[in-house]
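Contributing: when you submit paired examples, paste them exactly as shown. First protein:
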Amino acid sequence: MSAVKIMPCLDMKNGRVVKGVHFVDIKDAGDPVGNAAFYQEEGADELAMLDIAATLENRKTMLEWVKNVSSVISIPLTVGGGIGSLPDIEEVLNAGADKVSMNSAAVKDPQLVASAVERFGKDKVTVAVDGKRNVHMSSGFELVVSGGTRPVGKDAVAWARECQDLGAGAILPTSMDGDGTKQGYDLDFTKAITDAVTVPVIASGGAGTLEHFYEAVVKGGAEILLAASVFHFRILSIREVKEYLKDRGLEVNL
């Protein structure tokens, strides 16, 4: 297995970094440019920036935010939120993003994933898969879209596999049941996805302790560990997380 990567996530609203619990109860978490520079300095391997209100507000990702953040970092930047077409992807990449993350638009038009991969390359295309527990689904998880507000009656794990078949270079699963809770990644959901696909899986939603990061790799099978609250509110540092993982026998880039 390659070195485990740490990926802080800037959830953006009204030009500020914010963080909620279960995608609501939003709190301010600072300036995106300052945070981005700080995380790179701390040793982040990659950075994610998600425009959390873009789809709900039916608008595109704010390109100005992408330009500002990408100008202060050299690590790979993945941008998501409101990306619904090939021209949208092109604009975001031109603004300084290294990769895009698609969610609702991919569910609405799966062919968009295949077209994006064909045009920009699979390394540029991540598909975010938001899931919620539902015993009526064969995997136990239902796919939800629109910032976690709308269930679509589709199995989330089967959708992740379909995205890989369409050419996506990475899958970013987030459990609505765990997001922002700091109770730990949803290991059942993460593992179900990593068992179903061979592309890198980015664990997301719920990291609160050093042990949670370790479990996401060892029990969840994730290669990239995304977190927000613990980093934004300085509960843990990236260095601390990496040293802990290294001490537990995992490979990281210090």
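Second protein:
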Amino acid sequence: MTTGPLVDPETVPEWLRPLVKVAGEVDSRTFTRFSPPEDLLTRAAAVLILFGERPGIGPDVLLQLRADTLGSHAGQVAFPGGGAEDGDDGPVGTALREAEEETGVDPSGILPVAVLPELFVPVSKFAVTPVLAHWHTASPVRAVDPAETAAVARVALADLADPANRFTVRRGDASWKGPAFAVDGLFVWGFTAGLLSVLLSLGGWEREWDTGDVRDLDVAWAEHRAANVARGGTGEE
């Protein structure tokens, strides 16, 4: 599928236009340094990056917390999405179907506005196509299947861009490091945080933050869960 805008950028809200306009000017290297080996068989997948807007809050994005019992990416925050299936109408169809199955969102209220380049995720060997969409008519969302999704949340872009909520995480052996967010009781890192970080910049929402604040991933995640429990939560939201 051709990447880039799916609609005239002038037809979307002004705050979303810069991101739609730039969608056709980026390639996979804008988002990741990973590319699949030539002999590796990847599986096609798509995620829905659904942007909405709420009075008094402003633009937001839909995220979900994956259940701790899942075999891969357990307990991580992610965009709704998953592997392509027969009958899907390309990445857009996959993204909309998965979002409805996982969060209960009504696809009729969603306008896909752009398709980003396919991105390789080494851990799962998925070739993931991010689909940007505008949630013009919001509908209730929830964790449809608790065995797959622990929680669903609309997170304000202003909160994601808040320097107080941003830092960098790295594995103990320093073999990998990347951006992270602690916002609305969610600890966001990995593929999702990397995408969000670039999108905040491309969309013109990014604020200067302390990129030198580097924390050990396991320690930061454990501290986040402990803090949630101390606030009366389960440690999972």
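If you have annotations for the second protein, write them as plain sentences, like these:
The chain has five helices and 13 strands.
The first helix runs from residue 17 to 22.
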